[in-house]
Amino acid sequence: MADSDQQRLDAIVQVLIRIQQDQRVLSDRLARLEGAAGFTAPVSQSAAQPATPEAPPPFSSVPPEAAEVQPAPPMPGPAPAPTPPPHVHRSPELETRMGLTWINRIGVVTLVLGVAFFFKYAVDNRWIGEGGRVALGVLAGLALLAGADRLWHRGQRVFAQGITGAGIAVLFVAFYAAFGFYSLISQPAAFGLMLLNTAAAIVLSLRYGSQAIAALGLVGGFMTPVVLSTGQDAPWFFLGYVLLLAIGAATLAWRRRWRLLDGLAFAAAFILFAAWIGQHFTTEKRLVAIVFALAYYALFATREFRPVSAMAPAAACVLLLAISVPGPYPFLLLAPVVIATAMAIADARSRPEMLLAAFAAFWATYGLGQFDFVHYAARGTLTALLALPFALFLMWAPWRAGRGAAIGGIGLIVAPLNAAFFYAGAYVLLRPGWNDWLGLFTVALAAVHFALARWLWSAARSERLLMLMYTGVALALVTLAIPVQFAGFRITMAWALEAAALAWVAARTRDERLQWISTAVFALAFLRLSGDDAGLAVSVTLLNLRFLTFAVVAVCLGLSAQFGRRWAGAVVLYFGAHGVLLWGLVLEVLGWASRVAAPQDVVNFQSAAVSILLAAYAVLLVAIGVGTRSALNRIFGLVLIGSVVAKLYLYDVWRINRGIYRVAAFAGLGVFLLLMSYLYSRFRGSIEAFWRDEESRT
Q: How far apart are CA 218 and CA 42, in angstroms?
């Protein structure tokens, strides 16, 4: 290798060695800086092991002494920081928040109270004149604002925000004192100064990015007309000022995402409006009240802050109710506007809670309105007005389902409650003068729900649950229409017929839920049978309304058992049919015996007659079972005849005192027992064949 090439190679090796040494020095210095700052970092290799001279490359011709390069001198800088103490776990964020933010806010409030107490103390001791006190307050407020601005520029931003709030509050106190305490300025001048102070607070909140300053300025702005009031009412100015201030707060909340301002403006506007209604509202001022109530509602219902938009319908309904009382017309005419707006916003912004809020707000305020309907002759007109909000809530879910939009659980909650509340309200209105038409009205309302269920079945099959909900509401209304329109036994028969119709529909649609609804309606009919119908007095046996009612219920139960024979509960309906018919027959026999027997023989006659009746019914069941190949009828007949035998030997033989009745009971039962035995003897082969065929099929 040439000497020149060897020299170049040696120079490159020396440069690489210097670069490596410089890198070690920088790594050590970085480790010391990180240790001083409290960061954990791995110990550098140079700090962990003593440096050893690098051996020259094996191919170098330069001796080790010549190739060794001295470490580079350290870079100028501060002396190495001492080793930090062991790390102690703490929450610096919580500590600074408590020490800086919250302590700052508490200090501001304390300072403002101290200034207020100083003013009072100065007044009590007559230290300075009235003008001097106000001037000191204004100068103190301006000084606080100026000092806060300097602190802001020096980087103490959170502290500066608190001082700014203190300055704004002191200026509010000073301006109010100039008008309210000392009468140094007129009301318009005080209003202008306080409004200017509010505007300054808004500007400073934007400058410093502080929601707290903006909230403080708005609180002062909303309180301005209250503290400067002289008792004279100027509704257009007062409500208009509050509305403009609320619009400003809403704009600021939208631009800077300060949601607290929406809630503050909503609460302040509602409280001030309600206070004005309580102090100054009269029917002559209804127009201005309606205009601003709707304007406030339009503002807050469209807010991005969802709690405010959800509470807006309730606030609007409460205000409209207060404006309308004692008459219902303004409320019923304007409430649909509130409801339609809430529904549109709920649909456009996917806020179903607004629908629920509007629903609860309307029906709650209407129910709490305590309108005196006695003085209103046009009850049909009032019912029609009440039907407007009912129709809006009724059509919301089908309208969304027709567009393919989701309904959700809220739609399922609204559907039945809306029908219940509307029917209750309409019933109160129509009861005095339209009592004869209430049943037809109820059926018409049920037909509307049936029509919606049918439409949902064909147009929106995905909403089967909603369809079933409307169907259930319609069935409940039909069931309710029966006692509303009819009286006495007619209610029981109508319920039984309705239950049988439901059982037929359930069998056709194979919907077990309808079968359960049918059974529930039968339960209502049974309750009426055991109550008023069973105690109905009759004078003719069998050919009377009481037995007709029992017979209709028994036939409906039997038909329902036949319709739903594939349903597990059909056997209950079957036994229920025979039980109701036997119940009615027993009542007829007891009544006949009480009419024809001597008073001293009534109990004996009744007991013997009932035993013979049950035995005859048992034989009839066995005969029907043989003729129809029904094992259930035959078994039921056997069980029934067994119960009659038990009654005869355990009760009748001891309780029937007159011999003729005891003889009649035993002789009659004996005849029927022999007749039943003959049936089994005569048709034994057929009965056994029935069982063999049944076993082969299974």
A: 54
